[in-house]
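Ticket #4471: complex job returned nothing on first submit. Input attached below:
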Amino acid sequence: MVAGSVKTPEEAVARIAYLSSDVVISVQPTLSNASAFSSKLEELSSGGVKGTLTASNGVPEIQTVRQNADPLLSVFQPARSGKLVSVTATSSILLSSIPHLYKLINYPVVIHVSLQPSDFPDYSEITSIRQTGLILLQSESTQEAQDMAVAAHGLAVKTGKAVVHFFASSSDDSEISNEDTVLLGRALDRAAARTYQSGKIVSTSLYADDGVVAQTSNSIASVAVGTNGHASGLVTPASEASGIEPSSNGTSTADENSTRPSLTSIGSLHDAIESRPISSDDIHKHASTIFEVIKQVTGRSYNVFEYTGPRNADVALFVFGSTTGLFRSTIKRTPGDDYSRVGVITARLYRPWFGTKLTEVIPKSISKIAVLEQIKKKTTKWGPLFLDLLTCLRTGPALKGAPVVVGHQLGFITPDTASQALRGVVQNLKSESPVQNLSVGLEGVPTDVGHSISQPAIEAAYMKILDQLFGKRLHIANSLDKPNAGISATITASPEYGYGSLLARMERRQTFIERVENLAKSNDFTTRIPAEWLSKWLLVADDESKSGALVPGIIMRLMVDGSPAAYSLLSDKDLFYKESHWLIGSDAWSYDLGNSGVHHVIASGKNINMLVIDSQPYSEHAAADASRRKKDVGLYAMNFGNSFVASVAVYSSYTQVLHAMLEADKFDGPSVVVAYLPYNKENDSPLTVLQETKKAVDIGYWPLYRWNPRGEKDEKKFSLDSERLKKELQEFLKRDNHLSQLVKRNPQFAANLSGSYGTEVRQQQKRKAKDAFNKLLEGLSGPPLTILFASDGGNAEGLAQRLGRRGKARGLKTLVLAMEDYPIEDLSTEENLVLITSTAGQGEFPQNGRNFWETVKNSTDLDLATVNYTVFALGDSHYWPRKEDKHYYNKPGKDLDKRLADLGGRKLVDTGLGDDQDPDGYQTAYSEWEPRLWKALGVDNVDGLPDDPPPITNEDIKIASNFLRGTIAEGLKDESTGAISASDQQLTKFHGTYMQDDRDLRDERKSQGLEPAYSFMIRCRLSSGVATPEQWIKMDDISNEFGNQTMKLTTRQTFQFHGVIKRKLKSTMQAINRALMTTIAACGDVNRNVMCSSLPQHSALHAQAHEAAIRISNHLLPSTTAYHEIWLTDDDDKKVQVAGDAIVDHEPLYGPTYLPRKFKITIAIPPHNDTDVYAHDIGLIAIKGGDGKLSGFNVLAGGGMGVTHNNKKTYPRTGSMLGYAPLDKIHLVCEKIMLVQRDNGDRNNRKHARLKYTIDDMGVKVFKSKVEDLLTWKLEEARPFKFHSNIDTFGWQVDENGKNHFTFFIENGRIEDTPEFPMKTGLREIAKVHKGEFRLTGNQHLILSSVEDADLEGMRDLMAKYRLDNLQFSGLRLSSSACVAFPTCGLAMAESERYLPILISKLEGVLEESGLRHDSIVMRMTGCPNGCARPWLAEVAFVGKAFGAYNMYLGGGYHGQRLNKLYRSSIKEEEILEILKPLFKRYALERQDGERFGDFCIRIGMIKPTTEGKTFHDDVCVAPPLFFHPSKSGAHK
Ligand code: SF4
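Support reply: We reran it on our side without changes. The output follows.
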């Protein structure tokens, strides 16, 4: 025994299974619900415990499989590859696994099965598999379970046969100790195991001869004789050791002389050399031997049959159930003679059945045996064990004098009822003619709920959509929450069951219709009214919408009628609806067993809808075991030809799910909707599910499509709703001649269809590219120099390219490649190798160097003895300010250097470490490193080197673009790539669109050899964020048709679309123009969208400010005709006049080079600073005149947000006050400010090009005078004003004209539908009836503006219906905003929009506790320091630094008037929470009256105030302690 107690049989079994296997298949009810075995398995596995037989002594592998996902399928692949496999499961898997069990006979697999239900197990699950040919071993207590688990593994290894070890899980069992592994060492035949592990079994036959037919080996067991006192002494029955005593009269047990194998024979087993298939006698022999080993080591004795009781017994109970121990103890406890001659028999080894051995075990005196079988659902008159006994005892020569066998059905027995039950059995036995098939104990109690199947909560997404769509009409036949008396959940969840129940339901409705018909004709109602309504209904009973519309009326009339006839109909009122019939299944239906039910439904041709939810993650599929391959249910149904089929994924396209379900419902016949919802655990976060879904859909593993075999025209049969199609479908469609038409209609599919490149192809491409290049170099004479780079931002690549050019100029044969494009097998043949890498994230390699590094790092056979190498690394020594993080600085470069040296490489020169903190950044170190390299290569003194060509700058691109044309039009026509050229990428920004790629998919696509998933972000120009309802609907359409079905309301009050692919770009632009909007100058180095406070309560003032915003915007619009030419021409290149056209290409304001950088203007109307007036190049503060109207603006200039991490030359800045200008001249003031910037801004350094730096460089005074010079008049003194907040006011407000406005809370501006919240649909419905306008706010929210009183009620109802009126959020959430960041923004270093809501949820508990739930605290987050959500004006802000890590800023002004300051660098969630939680508590306790959080942080000394942009980097705590508790340690001064 070893330390550690075991509480349950499952724990004991799990441990033995783990120690004796290579692979344990742990079957669980669901992935997040552990089984009784799995926690032990996980504990051992996570502790790194090694198995005793595991190949190469490793840690056994645990594979978790869901109970309903055909778990035994998982056994074949490892078993066939020579792995010792065991399974831990409940008995509920056995029946459906019978086809597999036959195939497993010849594998040494052990299946440990705990019988269910645990309180009253049903042994019929065992008797049902008795004919499968498996060895069946039984145990009843925890101790027995542990011992028999050892025996099961011993037997499996020794015989090469599959063993099922079954046991009842008893809750009142006592704890035992872990068995010493010495026992395992002796019971498991290591040599036999190794023989099995060393060979692979190739057969994948369907038949029972799968596996290997085990032969007997020459060594059966190594049992030492007489090593302990038990070997030749009396046997201690296992029952004794497990607390159950043997017979009370002290007689010795019968097995002592009979069934135990002869010790002498065991001792000589080493000599037995045989070579023939294992026979059942061999199994008996091996079992006996292993039992003997157990006895020798533990003292506990086991036998094939076990008898306890007196030697002179005259009757015996043969128990096949969970209460053997109870009978034994009752017999022992009962005084007197009642049971003094009653014995108890059990079968330890139930199969093979060694009936002949039974007579050797039981005393000859026994004349009657009661067989007690715990079988709940009897299917035959005589129980299986009864027949077994009858066969062996009462046939053949044994018949004479053999005991009479009396069958009993064993019910539920408790210690209280055991005595009574025993008395009944014994009395029956002793009667002259015993009654056969007598029931003993209670029937069928209690039921077990522990192992029912439940639907994982995550799958509720699809249920919610069904509910939304069909409401009362929805009828789910196999819903798991419906009670189905007496039928197990496993059965009710099956398609067959659902199918049958739906047929019954259909019949019921038909009968109901007939009943209604009769009643409508009768006089059974009190009045005629119900009959009239019913007659109307009968005409439309099969039309779902018409009949549905009548139902409420009918129900009301029937209730009013009150007659018995009316009540009888009301009792079935659901049947008035033409129901939408659904069967819901999981991917268990995609395996053979479930699939047969699916087949039934499809073949029936009935109008039944099936929703099959597939939850296997795409990444898991990639590594999937071939023998677990699932059927493609969708493809199967398509092949059948009579079914509507759709493949959907709610996390990819919500709208497509809606379409598919509606079409399925409409289709008169079977419909199959296969729905994707990948997760590893049922509690996976939605973000994980979303990312996994995207990969699967993008790669074509899970294509989105709809197939209607009765489509009106052939070509309408198939709609491909995602971009790519998987191969199987492609083949199906090819077969189906409709494909040709599909391809004709959408020729781009043809390319997509065959667009799946394998990794091998990619390898070949690499090789070809390199070989071709080598050929090219053959003409050159100098030594070779291979330069490999890994680069995220382009600096490392730029350096590598330049080094390559310079090398070539020195006569070297240079080759420059990204590390990922280099065929790594050539590495050891290189002569001179230079590696240049930048540093990503937490000291990681950039994306295009990761695989290279992994291979180099893990390679064991790379020999670089003949390779000269050097490394240049780029990093930032201050990026990670904490001491413990310093090692991240230039880590990839340093790692490479060390590894290459370890592999034998010879250093050309020492590694160069470029540091962003050096005076010239990385160039400082580089300019010192490069000459050393040339020297080492002997090419340092070369004359006549050409000058490096100057780098192409944005300014060059603008000049060469011919007023923003570039080669955009040509690039759009190039269908070979989803991208456009680098210079066009700069130019399209001026047209309002950026090229991006989906970063969630980068790795996956790269591994598939595909270019990144390029798409475009399109930003509209929408002055002051006002849109009509018609425009809203058109924007909604555009997002559905061309984008990713969501819209982003931006921090600059406009619509932004993501995910528009290149070939849809032009159509999208045209659709936007048709909505009377434009995108020109929405991005780029021009004046962008002009913002304006949304101000719902002062409509007149707002109207005037809005007019000013439009005037400024139009005044500063670029004049180029390129926009119209590129985007708004039709396919014949004829110009389409959509929203006006310019005449000539001349930019009177901008000139050919436009502005040095972007330029932003905003208007704020006090007291609301909801547009962050201080954060823009020009901020205009509206000033009211004495007449209450807008008179003019105070003008701020030089605000701006974007900075670069750790570059102190960059900083955010609040605008400087220049003075006041009247309303009618304001556009001219803006123009002149812009012109001063145009002519004075820094065009050499884009990081220093914004107006804020121009102003700081020349001083506010000088700048102002330049503006006034251009104006030719002076700005007036700024007028007084007061702001009181920069957030929105949510809910209803009434303006001075009595019109109503409602501000919706749109978290982070994302307009999308989710099953929980169909917000986008709701807003669309509102837009359909709204007569006023929509106003987008600068905080990314939305105002429903100008609702008349008369429309108020209808609007309120609509809002309530879609839950858009919900404003029950914490003040923190209402005041938060985040930029887009991942997955589309190319600059994002960390999550933002997808993460901030999660972070806030984690803080809300503390806010609630501290009484701050309703307090507004402005919190903002961005994924990078570009600062799109204006983080530096928030009271608390987080700016992405690396994936999962943020810089934290505190102390911003609540009105957006003061910048915040860096408080902590690169902290992760845990630290964020550790800082903020106590800080919020402290704020709640110590704040002064009305004190804002940002001000509080400054007052208590947490942070210094930032007085102006230039002091942003001062007084920053750069190396804070890891865990800083502000409440304890006081202030950081
Ligand atoms: S702040 Fe940075 S990460 Fe966020 S959207 Fe702007 S550029 Fe992208």
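Residues 989 and 1084 are 5 Å apart (CA to CA). Closing as resolved unless it happens again.
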